[in-house]
Write a structure and sequence with these properties.
Length: about 60
């Protein structure tokens, strides 16, 4: 999910593909849902005059 380096902590997750398939859950969809729970999701952009800033999610997003 996230590349490991000196400045980023990461959470290794092992998805049981057989169980996910049995429940008709695409692994890519499961990964995205889990990423959103851990990192948050970007909600949009806030325009303040000419300045624009990200809204929602995490500081790294």
């Amino acid at each position: 999910m996230t590349v490991a380096n000196d400045r980023v902590d990461y959470l290794p997750v092992d998805i049981d593909r057989v169980t996910a398939g049995r429940d008709a859950m695409p692994v890519s969809e499961l990964q995205e849902m889990m990423r959103a729970q851990v990192e948050g999701v970007r909600a949009g952009m806030v325009a303040d005059g000419v300045r624009r800033a990200r809204s929602g999610g995490c500081a790294r997003c």
